[in-house]
Amino acid sequence: MDWYWERHGPKLRSTTLHFTLDKHIRPELGKLQLSEITAECVDELLTRKRDDISAETHNKIVSRLRRMFELAAKPGVGLWRGANPLVAVERRRIPKRLPTTLNAEEVPQLLAELDGQDQGIFATALYTAMRKGEVGGLLKTDLDLLQGVIKLQRCWDGPATEDGKPLLVPVAPSLRPHLEAALAANDSRFLFPAADGGMHRPDVKWDVKLRRALGRAGIVVGYEYRCRRKGCGFRERRSTADPARCPRCQFKLYAKPIPRHVRFHDLRHTTATLLLKEGVTLAVVSKLLRHSDPAITLGTYGHLDIEDLRQAVDLLPFGTVAAPGTSDDDAVSRQRFGAPVARNSPNEKNESRDASENPSNVAAFSWSGRLDLNQRPLAPQRPPGPSHLGSPRRTPWYPAYLLESLHVPLRTWAHRVARFAWRALRQHCGVQGSRSRSRPCS
Predict the structure, then answer these.
(1) Which fold has domain 98-219+260-304?
(2) How high is the pLDDT of residue 426?
């Protein structure tokens, strides 16, 4: 690993990953020989670090280690022979998220809360869509205010592009005063130098300064109220910063702003998004962002604000659809779209009636053209013989049969009642055994 950073580290545009490898990889793999590093040990290490590193950092570590083995296996180096073990290490899927941006009204509020060099740094990032390393590596000789351009050729102390060719970035009229003030502020060769006159460290805390300025500008998601009394410990999150007192000790509460989570790189997202919303073509925005493919610009920075989507939805040529609830609206609705498929219940509470009051819920009134497959036997019958209508032991057919037949379809129920009545009539008339037409009753 030391050989890689000594030989190829100066050629890298960014050294941020160097600190990540020293923190997560060197303590574990730095003790092993190259022949002892396998895909299994690397995968096991990254699995244990899953909660400590993001999916993007995981993939960058795998790519960098793979590149190390590729360079070590080149002819003439002789540090590695055989297949690259990092090829078998799987990458993690990076979840897509919409970047947090500022709108056109919030940008002046942010710059108003900054002063001196900080104001020039953030103004340059917003007006040129430069990355953090590109702003930190700017030299005074890179400015050409007569031509109104910035020669972008450095990212920290490395090249800004892979081929090393400088790129020309136009200077907006609103950015010129900030650049002129930065040129006259110091004698350093850097446009925005550190306190000692040299270049800022790559881990400079510009994100912290950005969020503090957002809090002062009121670009926040809420406020955290804290009690000023020592040892009280009362905290509460609210949406506004109104004066209040602690409910425990009645001391005055301090409202600490919770700024919106905007990173320094999100200023680049802000520039691209605002340009696209103003109607600038995708090709122009892609060229300003120094992207090799416009599809990268559209996929990364082509998100729109919800108000733009709302305006697009309002352009749908459906007309105004009347809301139900009044007779006029219902008439217009039936005239345009036909009668409704279902109507609401006249009951205001939409409560259904009891099953005994609603015949449609009683199975005995369900009409069906099929023969019931679960037919019950007929009611108990006396053996054929003389008339038994006057017998005290006869079985009354009407109540029991009706109650037991409520589950039978109406057609089957009527058929059984007619058949039972016909049999009783035949027995009353003295007809036995024959199915021929019975003689009339005497």
Answers:
(1) hpI Integrase; Chain A (1.10.443)
(2) 80
